[in-house]
Specification:
595 residues; alpha/beta; 5-stranded mixed beta sheet; 22 helices; globular
Length: 595
């Protein structure tokens, strides 16, 4: 695959990256280029502000883009890490494997710009004393409330649970619901319970050790979580966790219950893009999760991105690249660099720097203070991925009064789920890749899976590549399959970012080859993405024979659909791929014929 280089990145190009997709195929281009490879992790547009700042500050730095637009960005970034195939500038959203980060990334702890980060953040990203990934754009999470309504009733933000309990009583006397909690996605109830645990023991050294032991199967929730569940129950008793009968999404809950003055508080895992509720003009506020005695009222945060530098840049011969990469990290740790990841439409995003000082009337003023004081903790995710949703479902049933669930049963469910996952973790892997695949080989594999599932004669697969001023390729292949065992996350990582449908079209062999040669002009700008025609049995299509050709969702133009009578069908490529991989047991770039 040809890699197009940007030398240097112009302001116009940075703006165009808002709609741009990029792909990097690895290999010798890294050795032959002076440019730094940059993993855009979900599209260049998410970094357009920072890239523009980088161009203005260091116009001499050259970049090549490795954009991923598949179905599991976090998982894929760590798949690249395991395969030692990361770009020079590595970007992810979670630190999933600290030991692997130490092996693959450069230690930045000795550089002075690291000291500009908040001490509490440095403590949380430190891995055995080293700093390998730097955060940008911390999203803050707390409990939202209708600030205007509170002020009209002369209600103060509570400082401990006794004050919260008393306030909730006054709220009920005023004919209002104290608080609602988002439960549509079970990650919300999971985070709600864990965040309350963080107001007490879960963030202590003992709590951190328990978490590590529990996830390893060496500790139990029973005997440890009883006080937390009792405290969650007290929040429920005072009316803080009222659930929405329609189980709507978090934005709808906030706008309805707080916006229409039906409730005062809203607990949800969601950053907002407003500071005023639109229908009433009421101001929105954010308060911490309140601890029992008020000594540990805490906020949660989640970095939008983590940035790191490949350790290969520390090897002899890469001195200039390392120098340029360090310039990028230094800029990232500057006020201007952190500000590039926030905007007026992101009022919950805060800089990771000690110097962060939002206005006193801002939504996250108190959260910023909490960050400096060590009263802000990272949202729980890493290590809990396989049990998080099911644990959240148990908490959701408790909140909603369903299936007889209570705190004690939630604890038992936690132990059951973790043990089941540990016992069946090997079963989660349903196939094995015997070698690393190229992007084209991965595309062929997905073509075989779709074609065999839907009874097509061939599949037309779009493949990602970098387009200056182009579009991101959502409906194609932008991630590679690496050697190793395959589970749901790995399979999702190589699938497109859109799913749920495919199309069947009728065309002759000549027409199919002509379309493959023309490519997929997703933007209608005359700059198409490559197509790969994958045929059953690797057969050569006869010129005048009419064949059934399958296409990915969003993998064809309206013109193509009209010309060849597209029949759009419901069906998940991810499901098709899993079924096919389970049947194959093992896959290799040259094997697994589609007969």
């Amino acid at each position: 695959m040809i890699i197009k280089r940007m030398r240097p990145l112009s302001v116009l190009a940075a703006a165009a990256l808002l709609l741009s997709g990029c792909a990097f195929s690895g290999g010798s281009s890294r050795e032959n280029s002076d440019a730094l490879t940059w993993g855009t992790w979900g599209g260049c547009g998410r970094y357009a502000g920072f890239l523009e700042l980088l161009e203005e500050t260091y116009p001499e730095i050259e970049l090549e883009f490795n954009s991923y637009m598949g179905g599991n960005a976090t998982g894929y970034s760590w798949a690249q890490m395991r395969a030692d195939d990361i770009p020079d500038i590595f970007i992810t959203s979670q630190i999933l494997d600290g030991e692997l980060a130490k092996e693959r990334l450069a230690d930045l702890s000795g550089y002075p710009f690291v000291n500009d980060l908040s001490t509490s953040i440095l403590d949380q990203v430190s891995i055995d004393g080293g700093i390998y990934l730097l955060p940008a754009g911390n999203s803050m999470y707390g409990i939202y409330y209708n600030k205007t309504l509170m002020e009209e009733h002369h209600w103060e933000v509570p400082s401990d649970f006794a004050e919260l309990e008393s306030l909730c009583g006054e709220i009920r006397e005023a004919g209002l619901i104290p608080g609602v909690v988002g439960t549509q996605l079970t990650g919300g109830p999971f985070s709600t319970v864990f965040n309350l645990a963080k107001t007490d023991w879960l963030t202590t050294p003992e709590g951190v050790k328990w978490e590590q032991d529990f996830l390893a199967g060496n500790a139990a929730a029973e005997g440890r979580w009883e006080e937390t569940m009792e405290y969650v129950g007290r929040y429920m008793d005072i009316g803080m966790f009222h659930t929405d009968p329609e189980d709507r999404n978090n934005p709808q809950i906030l706008l309805d219950w707080l916006g229409n003055r039906r409730a005062v508080f809203c607990t949800m895992v969601q950053t907002v893009n407003i500071t005023e509720l639109p229908d009433t003009g009421d101001k929105l506020g954010m308060m911490p999760f309140i601890s029992r005695d008020g000594s540990k009222n805490v906020y949660m945060y989640s970095p939008a991105f983590y940035f790191g530098i490949s350790s290969r840049l520390t090897e002899p011969g890469n001195e200039e690249k390392l120098e340029n990469a360090i310039k990028i990290m230094s800029l990232l740790c500057s006020p201007e660099g952190q500000a590039a990841f926030s905007s007026e439409s992101a009022p919950c995003v805060i800089s990771a720097l000690n110097s962060a000082n939002p206005p006193e009337d801002s939504l996250i003023y108190d959260a910023a203070a909490a960050m400096k004081e060590g009263r802000a903790f990272q949202m729980t995710y890493a290590g809990w991925e396989y049990v998080l949703a099911d644990m959240g479902q148990a908490y959701k049933e408790w909140f909603r009064g369903e299936n007889g669930m209570d705190g004690e049963k939630c604890i038992a469910r936690m132990d059951e789920l973790l043990q089941h996952w540990l016992d069946s973790s090997e079963e989660l892997y349903f196939c094995e890749s015997t070698a690393d695949f190229t992007l084209e080989e991965t595309a062929k594999l997905l073509g075989k899976a779709l074609g065999s599932a839907v009874g097509a004669d061939a599949v037309m697969v779009p493949i990602g590549e970098f387009h200056e001023g182009g579009v991101e390729l959502r409906g194609g292949v932008t991630g590679k399959l690496y050697e190793g065992r395959i589970n749901v996350d790995v399979a999702a990582g190589i699938c497109p970012g859109v799913d749920g449908a495919y199309a069947l079209m009728k065309m002759t062999g000549v027409q199919a080859r002509e379309l493959e040669k023309a490519g997929f002009d997703a933007a209608g700008d005359g700059n198409p993405f490559p197509y790969m025609l994958v045929t059953k049995g690797d057969a050569d299509l006869e010129d005048d024979t009419i064949y059934t050709i399958a296409f990915f969702m969003e993998g064809y133009t309206e013109e193509t659909a009209g010309k060849y009578g597209a029949e759009v069908c419901t069906g998940s490529l991810r499901d098709f791929l899993r079924t096919w991989l389970e049947e194959q047991k093992k896959v290799s770039p040259e094997g697994n014929p589609w007969e």
